[in-house]
Amino acid sequence: MKKLILVFLSWTLLASAPPVLEARLTPKRSVLENGMVLLTSEERALPMITLNLLIKAGSRYDPQGREGLANLAARLLTYGTRSRTALQISEELDFIGAGLSTGCSEDLATVSLTLLKKDLDAGLNLLADVLTASVFPPEEIDRQKKSVIASIRARDEEPGAIAQTKFLEALFPGSPYGRPVEGTEGAVERMERAELVEFHGRFYRPNRAILAVVGDVSHQEITERLAKVFQSWDRGAAAEEPVPSVSPGPANSIYIQKNLTQANIIIGHEGVPRSHPDYYAIQVMDYILGGGGFSSRLMDSVRNERGLAYSVYSMFDAEKYVGTFQVTMQTKNESADEAIRIAVEEIRRIREQRVGEEELQAAKDYLIGSFPLRFDTNRRLAGFFAQVEFFELGLDYPDRYPEMIRKVSRGDVLSVAKRYLQPEKLIVVVVANQEKAGIKK
Amino acid sequence: MLENGLKVLLLENHKSPSVTFQVWYRVGSRNEEDGKSGLSHFLEHMMFKGTPKVGPEEYSRIVAKNGGRSNAFTSADHTVYFATMSREKIGIAIELEADRMANALLDGSYFEPEKKVIMEERRLRTEDNPTAALAEVTGAVAYTVHPYRRPVIGWMGDIEGLSREDLQRHYRRYYVPNNAFIVVAGDFSTPEILSKIKATFGKIPRGPETPKVRVEEPPQRGERRVVLKKEAELPFLLFYYHAPNFKDPDSFALDLLSVVLAGGRSSRLYQELVYHKRLALGVDADYEGLSVDPTVFSITAQVMPDKDPAEVERAIDSLVARMRAELISERELEKAKNQVEASFVFGQDSVFGQAMRIGQYESVAGWRLLDSYLAGIRKVTAADILKVAKQYLDTDRRTVGTLIPIKEKKQ
User: Fold this and answer.
1) Which among A194, A390, B102, B138 is most buried, taking Cβ atoms within 10 Å?
2) Could you give the ipTM of this predicted complex?
3) Fold assignment, B224-406
4) pTM for the complete prediction?
């Protein structure tokens, strides 16, 4: 234990030269023989390593009628392999104090592992085991099904989560992007072991994976170890993967009755995917409208001037193939109507008048100035590297980012506001005590 | 320590190009009175409404324009203001914080709208959040006289009744350099930052000594129970056992006890309730020793649909009874220690997290205790864990809160 304390104190000795920002944000990249993309960055200040793996095995690959399959597969990775039971896996992990978690989104399954440097070999063995040798034991499947179903029900007591689900359902009807990754209770109940095994065999392949490693290890060292533990992990067949086509649903108003003190409101419509050329101008515009925390127009008009909400923000969430625009806020039932009216007014205003020069400059200054500070932990760095790779932004992305923001003009902001904010297409979701909210429909 | 009584704690850490600057005021809901709950939190909101030099809401804008992030939070024990910025810009946050320590206007024209904002915050965090509402009412029963029985955000009626004069009095009384300390962590140079702090905060005169809170919670003799019936999907169970804070040497064993019970999927509560018996969707055990006065050790369980909370309670009871009767194995002890040590290292990954930890230690028992924390953990034996389980996980010293979901008719 002495050793750890010494490390703690020795930081001051590293004080001499401030790190070069671009170098910190630019990982080493290589493609392993089996097709996995590896991104690494040495961070030697602490004896720890963070690994973040993305794999193209999200809920968009769920077969019809089997909604929730990808999510269940991701959850079950750590519940039994050819050589370890679920309990053995958690015993081994807990004994070294490591954190191993899995997750699932529409596009991707994720596996992340954080451990001490001295436990790297043990951790990599486990990581390889859960990725390549999961066996999906029947009793574990049953257990996880019940757990997923309980989670689906538990979501019904979170008004914000209900609003989000209804919004996406209305925006992307009939699409994987319009339903929760957990699927439905019925579909989860019906899931069979053979389907999980088949899904795993098909989608959990190294040539569909991106692994970012940040911490106390070199690129070469980790490459050698990965080659060893992933020896038997073979490429999958390079299947044709059509870009998903998604047609957004029409303007709509959705009112969900819940006995709440606040109306939980989402208003929004389709956004743009991450690769869209106007993405950066849109981010600047959105910062001014409602993305800029305490500095935004929505915060001013809804919270500061009228005291209608504690939290109000807008967001252009850009994924690989789809994007959304949404304004999210909560206000007491009785003022739901007023809050929606004001938010819509702000959306109209930024489409009609140029933003102020100072407002624009403040937005750009924040986005550029905060960029290197946003990745101030190993975990955030690893997440950032993996995203940059998945979105194909290029290793020089951190160097290009400031310029892409800097060149956005007031005219650009107006033009993207006009084009990508569409008041006539707004989907409005209100989860509230509807009698008290009494929205004029 | 500056001459005006303001203590400064600095931790240089150059692993990332950011600096966190935090001002900790030793005031929170613990310092409030009946009928005035939520005062500290309300004041925190009003601190963003400007000074003669800086306009309302300008603080956040100035920090953001310089690439930084800022916010504040209030707990039972303290009110903390923080900004995370680059080394070149952090001086801006220092000037702004020094300015509002001495010159906040608490402008009356912003008082009423901000009161509404805080009431919305309470609706969001507590009224419409079944588990938070359960924790609030259970806390109000676990403590009978100590101010920890009041919620930090305040009771709705109290918030409504607070006046601007209440805030001004609270500000004058507690926002003085001798009732605060500063924590800076990250990429900075000590001489530079220290001279900046002296040039700004050093000018603020020392204030009168702040009133001490001397309320002691009398020992509990006999279990207390509280039921909350509310619209929800799953029942929820919450056990509060009275426990000492980090000043007590038992705290190391209590920390490990919480890990043995609920640290990871191989832990006892998880194995028994979630994995084998499938009674709970999730479980947790938490020892929050970083509090100024004695605290609680909590155990929580989110009950699976169609399971009876009484059955879950019995399962927890028999597990706790075992903890109080038998020594844990050496391997289980080693595992818990490894988990605590690893998470201690992981916790240093974020400069913000580091600064938070230093601040919490300082406010409870002095920041130096942080350096001996792991050594203290290392020394704990299985017998120590048995001893604290026996002493503190006592049915007569606990309060049990149960959330019973009621369903509304679907329309």
Assistant:
1) B138
2) 0.94
3) Cytochrome Bc1 Complex; Chain A, domain 1 (3.30.830)
4) 0.94
